[in-house]
Amino acid sequence: MFHSISGRSKFLAFTLCLLVPILAAFGCGKEEQPPEVIRSIRWIKVAETSTVQVRMISGTTKPVDQTALSFAVGGTVETVLVRLGDQVKKGQVLAELDQQPFVLGVRDAEAELSKAQANRVERRANYERYLALYESNNASKAELDEARASFDSAESQVKAATAQLGLARRDLRKTRLTAPFNGTISVKEIEPFIEVPRGRAVFGLDGEESGFEVSTEVPEAVVINLNVGEQADVVFPSLNNRRVPGVITEVGARSREATTFPVTVQLKEVFPALRSGMSVEVAFEFIPQSETGEPIETGLLVPLEAFLVGAEKTHFVFVYDEKSSTVKKTQIKALNLRENDVIVEPGALKAGDIIATAGAAFLNDGQKVNLMEEKKK
User: Fold this and answer.
1) If you placed Cys at 356, which of 171, 215, 238, 318 could pair as Cys (CB 3.0 to 4.6 Å)?
2) Is the separation of the CB atoms in 96 and 176 below 8 Å?
3) Given this structure, which CATH class describes domain 65-98+180-206?
4) What is residue 377's predicted lDDT score, i.e. its pLDDT?
């Protein structure tokens, strides 16, 4: 009996010796499990910035007063008194047509007027004679009316002949083409002895006193923010990028091409090197508007590396929550690019918020993170 109990004790002791290492192994495995890895992120604190946008649009210079000159009558050119590039004064004669046909026209009109006036004198005397006869009952009412009608017709002929003489004299004056204002001859398409029809441009005249302006074609996304009277600088690349202040004088209401509208900017300064037809860049500054049409004067500056693109052209950033030490995926609305940053409309994102920068594309909404000690500059 004693030996049997002793054998069981040995068996239990042997079994315990086998189990202890196994249990110890399980216990040690739990103690050695690595802790949760929390990602460290670079970050930046969002700051406010001005939302003023600048768009550079190409344009061409031209005088404010620029016109094509033509004869109001057709004829043979007799003399051309100016050359291309000449400076001219208002009222100066530029060219003349052969006046002989027009002088003859005036004489013919004068003869017709004299004839009509003589006829009117005769018809008036005839009417007055019938009027006296009618009053003495020696002429009928019908005869008097006929005499009156004949006199009225003669009166109308005099008026018509007078008007015709006026036109003939005007045409004679129009054989001289004069400058409507002070300026420079920029186009010359006329020579002596050639025939020129009425209305065909023979000179181009650029005004010199009213200054210069720039003609541009502005995209619809920009033109909706422009107004007459606003400032716009003009840059001259060919003159070492000389910058000249200007003011918007015209904003077209109808597009000339698919998506552009004509805008005119008048220069506030004129200098000797300025020429018509120079290529320039116009700096249009404007403030973006909200969906309700209100100006957004202040925006938020977000680095490009923090700016992420989502589905359906949405944009977002990861905003750090200090209480939970997690990042939240926050949708934003971009207004404009400025070098390596995006200007964002305030809303869900506010000034002072901390956002993830480098590696933001690898984060998940609600992910726990640590902020790196060194703030990104």
Assistant:
1) 318
2) yes
3) mainly beta
4) 46
- Residue in 162, 154, 35 with CA at minimum distance from that of residue 111: 162
pLDDT above 90 for 172: yes
pTM given for the model = 0.58
Token pair 């249009």 is found at: 284
Q: Are 232 and 265 in contact (CB under 8 A)?
A: yes
Cα–chain center distance at 330: 35
Q: Report the pLDDT averaged over residues 165-190.
A: 95
Q: Positive or negative CA dihedral for 245, 89, 168, 74? A: negative
| CATH pick for 58-62+210-286 out of 2.60.120.200, 3.30.70.100, 2.40.30.170, 3.40.50.1000 | 2.40.30.170
DSSP lists the bridge partners of residue 325 as none
* Residue range 354-373, pLDDT digits in tens: 999 988 888 999 999 989 87
327: tokens are 């990042």
Gap between the Cα atoms of 94 and 329, Å rounded: 74
Residue 279: the pLDDT is 97
Measure the CA–CA gap between 243 and 23, rounded to whole angstroms: 85
- CA gap 368, 363 in Å, rounded: 9
Give the C-alpha separation, 115 to 112, whole Å: 5
Q: To 10 degrees, the CA torsion angle through 362, 364, 369, 371?
A: 60
For 312-346, what is each residue's pLDDT tens digit? Answer: 888 999 999 999 999 999 999 988 787 788 888 88
Cα(300)–Cα(353) distance, integer angstroms:
10
Instruction: Return the CATH number of the domain spanning residue range 43-51+294-371.
Output: 2.40.420.20
pLDDT of residue 102: 96
Domain boundaries, the chain: 43-51+294-371, 58-62+210-286, 65-98+180-206, 100-173
* Under 8 Å between Cβ of 117 and 158: yes
CATH topology of domain 100-173: Helix Hairpins (1.10.287)
Q: Are 60 and 276 in contact (CB under 8 A)?
A: no
Which SS3 state, helix, strand or coil, does residue 144 take? helix
Model pLDDT, residue 124: 95
